[in-house]
Design goal:
358 residues, alpha/beta, Aspartate Aminotransferase, domain 1, Aspartate Aminotransferase, domain 2, seven-stranded mixed beta sheet, 15 helices, 13 strands, binds pyridoxal-5'-phosphate
Amino acid sequence: MQPYLPGKPIDEVKRELGLDRVVKLASNENPFGPSPKAIEAVKEAAEKMHIYPDGAAHDLKQAVSKHIGLPVSNLIMGNGSDELIHLIGLVFLGSDQDEMIVGDPSFSRYDAATQIGPSKLTKVPLDADYRHDLVAMSKAVTANTKLIFIANPNNPTGTIVRKAEFDRFLDSVPSHIAIVLDEAYFEFSEGAEDFPSARDYVAAGKNVIGLRTFSKAYGLAGIRIGYGFGPAEVIDAINRVREPFNANSLAQVAAIAALDDAEHVQKTVQNNKEGLEFLASVFTSVGAKPLESYANFMYADLGRPAQPVFQALLEQGVITRSGHALGNPACLRVSVGTKEEMEIFAEQLKNVLKMETA
Ligand SMILES: Cc1ncc(COP(=O)(O)O)c(C=O)c1O
């Protein structure tokens, strides 16, 4: 089993390289931080942190139910959506006969969900446009397939699958197989033409599990809270294997407050739109090929090994993610930051590439 390789923490880079200014564009966090309402809610709740959380997360589930338009019986909260990925693996996979299908490259925590047991992992390469190849994924289904994960938008590519192709895929896969649509970046892709929202499939009674998180657009990555939604009997099964207090009390109130601050999300999404346009122009200007992104990061083919570029950027105090670790050695993944952070990245990328060619 491969250990998870997170984006490098700012303090570690400062310490190791002796730098004062470090910009982290590696973990798709919210550059504006959390909503001020969430900060207030956490301060207030901190006084009660000697009390166990509400294990049923009643108030948060009510708020999410209203937000997403699904009954509470279809909802489950997690210690980040990472935890829900893990729990879904525990529920659906057990024997060495069971199989799970994922795209390649996609989010590495899916792989980990099979690697904790003896089950088989089938990785289906993305297509030539770095999109999930749903036809090939459907062909990879066998009598033993139990679970399929699709990140939509995908991490690390930022690409999406469209409604028409997902509908065809759903029709082609036997209905006892659970299909997870991981919408960690939903708020950034919402409104994209022909986007297949997991919520609509769950509402229609399909065997689809949606995952969303408060870590990205809502800016709560550090406190750990995400949610899943799916058929009531699937949610009931996941509920049985989770730890009783998996969603901590501070995270629950932070998430309720964050949901109540639509303005903060709007500001984040608007900055993201502008940041993606800027990043696309920067990458194009240096001869790289950026992919069209529906998330809060951009993946670009540099046309050369990305690892030395990643390393040189790091030495200049800019933390990105090298495709070397993500499955495409010529690609670099960069999160959208503030305008100032984007300018610093642009300047340093140009410097680094100039140094490389000199
Ligand atoms: C596709 C995808 N799913 C899930 C997660 C995990 O998010 P969380 O912070 O909610 O555990 C991430 C985080 O990067 C992600 O990219």
